[in-house]
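Per your request, structure below.
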């Protein structure tokens, strides 16, 4: 067994031959041009993967990544990547069981911000850094999804707004604090601003990042009475939109064992994903960017059609299979998508009847073929994507992904029976106990709140919908609450299977 590091790469390459690709560029030549907040499995299977391909194709390694971690749990990533010179093993799993395996070398540095805040800021103010990218999850933008307003009362945000950075005593705690302070220092030093690139699954991710950064900065300007910064950011900093797609499950012990057994590599944190990958990116990088188009990234002027297609067909469909799948006793996405009734519910009742009417025409895309492909991707048994992962952080995902579908359909007078059933399945899941007495941990930043609401179902079946931060005034719309109450009652009495059968029968009898 060989520990992964820059010094052991020749040995690893020789032992594996064509079964494993390794960086074909000198690691010592990497120069950091991108700082990335939120280095998890997805970033390493997506943006870092594309960059590695670009470097292997002979393009400049001036766009290597400095990863930044903010959360206490990021210590593990720091230790893993630092001990391995930024290297990690990646395996894309094909439906036929084959794999494409490689060692990725595009992350040249990793900094844990709480331990080295000034080092992070120094890196971000380096003129060589021209992009700061983000995968901070839907909740990382610190906004109320119902009102769209920035949440200034979040403790870490409030602390950053009250602090004076650069005094040797206080340092940023949040992504907002670091981004805005770095931009302030760049302006002060006469250095061009970097581009802020959100790679999260939210509609108009670039627009949202800009709005939230400006909201934070305006409050900061008010409190510090320093030279205003918000207007300068608004006029000079680019925030391109993009759509990202690659199903990337949480790394499991069996993945580490597979890397060790099949490739002889001891890797603290490898990454596995499906074989499919897509990135549609708005071409708005005033100070330069990597030649992403050379490795398959779609550079476009308008991302929105692709973005809505992905959010409303893939991401919402993941929510459709997550809670129903768990209630039916499934563990993995591929099990849920080989369950005929759940597959029909997702592919026909949700995708065709309620999701597709909210998706505009997408250039070059056959939506029926895309939807079929989604089901095939979900059914890839080798990926082993857990339903527990898909059901996690629902209070960020349902308001961000499914509520816009519900609102648009309600506004157009269209049926929302299936969306109501999906939201009801979340409410039933949040009770914390399955149909056969099995219990699961509800993983959510608002766990106590959503579980407390679900615990009131006997007394108030609409309790779950009364959370205005998550659902706005949805509880007042009878066109939604009627099918929701019917679905929730069925889930709590007859079970998930019976509800799926009833909804299918209703469609066959002419609903919608």
């Amino acid at each position: 067994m060989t520990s992964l590091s820059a010094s052991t790469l020749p040995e690893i390459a020789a032992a594996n031959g064509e079964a494993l690709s390794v960086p074909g560029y000198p690691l010592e030549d990497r120069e950091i041009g991108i700082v990335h907040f939120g280095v998890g499995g997805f970033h390493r299977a997506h943006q870092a993967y594309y960059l590695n391909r670009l470097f292997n194709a002979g393009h400049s390694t001036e766009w290597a990544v400095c990863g930044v971690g903010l959360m206490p749990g990021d210590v593990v990533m720091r230790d893993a990547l630092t001990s391995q010179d930024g290297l990690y093993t990646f395996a894309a799993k094909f439906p036929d069981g084959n794999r494409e395996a490689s060692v990725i070398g595009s992350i040249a540095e990793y900094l844990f911000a709480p331990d080295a805040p000034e080092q992070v800021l120094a890196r971000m103010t380096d003129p060589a850094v021209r992009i700061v990218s983000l995968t901070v999850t839907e909740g990382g933008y610190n906004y109320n999804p119902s009102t769209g307003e920035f949440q200034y009362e979040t403790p870490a945000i409030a602390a950053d707004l009250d602090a004076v950075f650069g005094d040797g005593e206080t340092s940023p705690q949040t992504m907002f604090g670091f981004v805005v302070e770095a931009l302030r220092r760049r302006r002060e030093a006469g250095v061009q601003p970097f581009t802020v690139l959100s790679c999260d699954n939210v509609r108009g991710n670039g627009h949202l990042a800009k709005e939230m950064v400006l909201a934070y900065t305006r409050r900061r300007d008010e409190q510090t009475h320093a030279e205003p910064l918000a207007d300068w950011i608004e006029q000079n900093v680019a925030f391109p939109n993009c759509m990202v797609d690659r199903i990337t499950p949480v790394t499991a012990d069996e993945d580490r064992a597979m890397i060790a057994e099949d490739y002889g590599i001891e890797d603290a944190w490898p990454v596995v994903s499906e074989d499919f990958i897509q990135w549609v990116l708005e071409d708005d990088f005033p100070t330069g960017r990597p030649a992403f188009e050379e490795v398959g990234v779609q550079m476009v002027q308008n991302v929105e059609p692709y973005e809505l297609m992905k959010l409303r067909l893939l991401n919402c469909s993941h929510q459709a299979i997550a809670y129903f799948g768990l209630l039916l006793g499934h563990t993995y996405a591929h099990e849920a998508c080989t369950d005929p009734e759940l597959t029909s519910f997702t592919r026909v009742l949700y995708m065709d009847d309620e999701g597709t009417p909210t998706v505009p025409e997408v250039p070059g895309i056959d939506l029926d073929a895309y939807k079929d492909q989604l089901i095939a991707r979900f059914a890839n048994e080798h990926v082993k994507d857990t339903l527990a992962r898909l059901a996690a952080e629902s209070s960020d995902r349902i308001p961000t992904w499914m509520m816009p579908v519900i609102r648009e359909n309600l506004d157009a007078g269209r049926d929302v029976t299936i969306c109501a059933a999906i939201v009801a399945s979340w409410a039933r899941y949040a009770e914390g106990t399955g149909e056969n007495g099995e219990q699961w941990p509800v993983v959510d930043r608002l766990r106590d709140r959503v579980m407390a609401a679900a615990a009131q179902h006997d007394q108030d079946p609409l309790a779950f919908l009364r959370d205005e931060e998550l659902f706005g005034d949805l509880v007042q719309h009878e066109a939604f609450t009627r099918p929701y109450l019917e679905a929730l009652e069925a889930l709590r009495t007859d079970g998930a299977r019976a509800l799926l059968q009833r909804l299918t029968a209703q469609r066959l009898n002419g609903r919608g």
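The chain is about 45% helix and 10% strand.

Regards,
D.
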